[in-house]
Design a protein that fits this description.
Rossmann fold, 7-stranded mixed β-sheet, 4-stranded antiparallel β-sheet, 9 helices, 14 strands, binds adenosine-5'-triphosphate, ATP hydrolysis activity, nucleotide-binding, ATP binding, ATP-binding cassette domain-containing protein, ABC_transporter-like_CS
């Protein structure tokens, strides 16, 4: 028998962060062979301003696609995405570019996609800051301070092409947070790092969240990374499957009552298993129908 409890939704808080609201977000990729691949098939998700969330899920479940849509790098095929007051599904390309340069910063999977290889580490951070409107630029941290925080001071004048994989990863994070975004999105930011460097990178992301109220959403496969986030959202087959709040995991009821079971129950209760739902006081109990009854 499995207990199903209802988790209360976090209320929005007034901070410098941008809230995120996804309603029925669908995304299709058209392959070169002309087939459509459904990457997201109805994502409903709300993230309050200033929340820090780890996006989890099996390979191919749609995490990177969701992050790219939140960052305005790709446009959803259908559904609505709202960042703070901005309905980015309806914004023009120019409006979206303005929002990205002023408020949203995305670190893509693979450090090299975030960096100019022929520029030095410091120049990469400086270039990132040039995208910020001039009026806000004086409030930004100095590139040297940021590089010190990711332990790259000695590599500040080296061209990025001459850095190791782990150093490039840290340089990419420094460039991503250098603009003091209101929404920080990072796809596997710690994937090539040793434990020590991973902890530095995590500390910087959490500091940005704490100091500026930035909303932080990170895709990760690493349990050591997700354990540092107060909220986890697991994407399964292109939908929100599970949510973790302060270490407690909840199944999320999707549109039309669709429910995705946690992995251990999928093994115990294979496709075709019949399950009864019984009310019990304020909660519900799910119980497997015994065979032959
Ligand atoms: N450019 C593309 N063209 C066609 N299909 C794509 C493209 N990018 C992603 N997909 C497909 O969309 C689905 C979701 O991919 P996505 O990269 O978002 O998943 P993911 O959860 O981030 O995976 P991983 O953890 O392996 O990075 C997968 O089936 C993937 O093969």
């Amino acid at each position: 028998m499995t207990h199903v409890r209802e988790a209360s939704r976090a209320d929005a808080v007034e901070t410098g962060g941008l809230s995120v609201r996804c309603e029925g977000v669908v995304h299709l990729y058209r392959t070169v062979q002309g087939h459509d691949v459904v990457a997201l098939q109805g994502v409903d998700l709300q993230i309050s301003a200033g929340e820090r969330v780890a996006l989890l899920g099996p390979s191919g479940s749609g995490k990177s696609t969701l992050l790219a849509l939140l960052g305005g790098i790709q446009r959803a095929s259908a559904g609505r995405i709202q960042l703070g007051e901005h309905d980015i599904s309806r914004q023009s390309d120019a409006e979206l570019t303005r929002l990205r340069s002023s408020s949203v910063s995305t670190m893509l999977q693979g450090a090299d996609r975030n960096l100019l290889p022929y520029a030095t580490t410091r120049q990469n951070v400086e270039f990132a800051q040039l995208a910020v409107p001039r009026s806000r630029r004086r409030d930004l941290p100095s590139p040297d301070d940021l590089l010190a925080r990711v332990r790259l001071s000695e590599q500040a004048d080296r061209t990025v092409a001459n850095l190791s994989g782990g150093q490039r990863q840290r340089a990419a994070l420094a460039a991503t947070v250098a603009v003091h975004p209101r929404l920080l999105l990072a796809d596997e930011p710690t994937s090539q790092l040793n434990d020590d460097d991973r902890d530095q990178v995590l500390a910087l992301m959490h500091e940005v969240g704490e100091e500026l109220g930035t909303t932080v959403v990170v895709v990760t496969h690493d349990p050591a990374v997700s354990a540092t986030f107060p909220r986890t959202v697991t994407i399964k087959s292109g939908r929100v499957g599970l949510e973790g709040r302060d270490g407690v995991e909840y199944v999320v009821i999707g549109a039309d009552g669709v429910l995705q079971l946690p992995a251990h129950l999928v093994e115990q209760w294979p496709q075709g298993t019949m399950v009864r739902i019984e009310p019990e006081e304020a909660d519900l109990l799910l119980s497997r129908e015994e065979q032959g009854r």
